[in-house]
Amino acid sequence: MNERTHVDTGEDDLCKTVCVHKDAVDAVKKCMVGDETLRELAELFKVLSDHTRIRILHALLHAELCVCDLVDVLDMNQSAVSHQLRVLRTAKVVKYRKEGRNVFYSLDDDHIFSLLRDGMDHVME
Fold first, then answer.
1. What is the rounded distance in angstroms from the CA atom of residue 4 to the CA atom of residue 84?
2. Which domains does the chain have, with CATH numbers?
3. Strand partners, 98
4. Tens digit of pLDDT for each residue in 57-88?
């Protein structure tokens, strides 16, 4: 442990002694990604933080659905669902395919599936 300075802070959620563990800090600094990547990750979590979008994604966890199906499952109007799907599509969270006059949506990839599944596991513990 490399200690730099010691100051008694008196706060329960803070270190009682201020010190820097140089080996750990250096190892973490080597692993840190760039700010732009972290901004993109923050944007992804912003997209995922909306209750309506989470409802849509939860439905898409179970099946590929057309917009009309989502409207029925979520008991929402089509323009509201379409707006949220546009946000999710722009963020590369969902993808779509056209079949005749219908548009079917699904989760974009296994990463999104894993994020949702792991999040559900976490909140249901």
1. 50
2. 1-32 (no CATH), 36-123 (1.10.10.10)
3. 103
4. 999 999 999 999 999 999 999 999 999 999 99
